[in-house]
Amino acid sequence: MGAGSPRPGVGPPDGGWGWVVLVACFVVTGFAYGFPKAVSVFFRELMRDFGAGYSDTAWVSSIMLAMLYGTGPVSSILVTRFGCRPVMLAGGLLASAGMILASFATRLLELYLTAGVLTGLGLALNFQPSLIMLGLYFERRRPLANGLAAAGSPVFLSALSPLGQLLLELFGWRGGFLLFGGLLLHCCACGAVMRPPPGEAEAPPGGRARRRLLDVAVCTDRAFIVYVVTKFLMALGLFVPAILLVNYAKDAGVPDTEAAFLLSIVGFVDIVARPACGALAGLARLRPHVPYLFSLALLANGITDLSSARARSYGTLVAFCIAFGLSYGMVGALQFEVLMAAVGAPRFPSALGLVLLVEAVAVLIGPPSAGRLVDALKNYEIIFYLAGSEVALAGVFMAVATYCCLRRSRDTPPGPTTGGASDTEDAEAEGEPESLPSGTQEPRSLESLEVPSPRAGSVGQEREADPGRSRESV
Questions:
Q1: Residues annotated as region Disordered (predicted)?
Q2: Which residues fall within 8 angstroms of residue 151, CB to CB, at 6 or more apart?
Q3: What is the pLDDT of residues 338-354, one digit of tens each?
């Protein structure tokens, strides 16, 4: 299945088959983020059949999300070892098998292992490789591509929940799980179209590049450290308002139907905001400053939470939903673009896996803690203040750390041997320099965030100098 050695002068095509890859990434992103939430429509029937409480039943979605985030390093290793397409095909089969087996479950433990572990792992093995492949196909239009792919999350969430309710009414939860399992086979179709770009190999042919399955050296890069800290702070509070919004509105005296419609407002604005923000970030004047746009989106989201903590009228809540959906969509559209620009394509698989692992820890801390505080204090206002402060702090930290590290990089002259290399490059210069894949320039720590990514021409020149080596990641 390998595509052979890289061809001189070949860079990301920014179109062509890349649009097919983008559609597949849109579908996979929609399943990855929408499916764990859509399964919640079956919870009431599961509680009745298994005689369990809501918290016990909700562990199905929690385990699914934990697998999606927490198995990031495993997915990175598999992608580096086998390539994106085989991993996605296997992930689609696992996700489908998990839901099909769950339809025969007789105990909650069996649901945890099938719908939770198997389906969650399958979604993880689809989500991460699809983002990696998207980065290989797009360079100049990458912000737009990331924004369009990220729009799959609100679109699928809006579609899967009503579909699940319809299947529940027609076939019961077992029939719904069975049909959802068949629906997840579309992930296999998405994986099948993930062929490598021209000149790229399906997987590394061997040697030292294959042995370094997880590039932990990326953890020494300043850009990566700043991004990880930002994502951890962000994940502590970003999802809390959306989770508590409906109950918060009901507590303010809003009727049930109108309270539920608030989430639809957030979803609609989110659908529009993600591709629009991606297109905006791709403009020539703005793309070098994408990290600051990301910081601005986080700060806007945090301020929205803080300013709406005491909202009691329905009109004020609608205004909050519009502002929250806009800033939330901006964050979703820019988060992976910032990471790609910071670490570069070769290190992106390892970096993404490690980031998702850190985010899993934050997600397991933030929303559950918020729920416990609501139960203990019976006060939503404090929760909105806390969540908004965490997200706003993430935005301020990202902007300040980026600015400070950029000044440090510019004030420090490059050494005679490193030539201004990043921290990661310095660490690897003492180890195995030849294990880095050719065809991509190394990012220069935080300075890489403000410099537009290299064009295909420079990539081709490097490949001409060393045409016999292939990309490590895919």
A1: 409-474
A2: 26, 270, 271, 274, 275, 333
A3: 998 888 878 888 888 89
Q: Check if the beta carbon of residue 303 is closer than 8 Å to that of residue 388.
A: yes
258/206 Cα distance (integer angstroms): 59
Superfamily the domain 12-213 falls into:
MFS general substrate transporter like domains (1.20.1250.20)
Predicted pLDDT at 10: 54
The CATH homologous superfamily to which domain 215-450 belongs is: MFS general substrate transporter like domains (1.20.1250.20)
* Residue 130 one-letter amino acid: S
| DSSP string of 157-199, one letter each residue | HHHHHHHHHHHHHHHHHHHHHHHHHHHTTHHHHHHHT-PPPTT
Contact by Cβ (8 Å): 138, 12? yes
Contacts of 4 (CB under 8 A, 6+ apart): 199, 201
End-to-end CA, the chain: 12
Q: Name the residue ranges covered by the structural domains of the chain.
A: 12-213, 215-450
Q: What are phi and psi of 205, to 5 degrees?
A: -75, -15
* Strand, helix or coil for residue 97: helix
Looking at residue 171, its pLDDT comes to: 93
| pTM over cut 0.85 | no
Same fold for the domain at 12-213 and the one at 215-450?
yes
Residues with Cβ < 8 Å from 460, sequence gap 6 or more?
A: 8, 9, 10, 11
The pLDDT of residue 258: 84
The closest alpha carbon to 176, from 126, 118, 105, belongs to 105
Give the number of other CB atoms < 10 A from CB of residue 209: 22
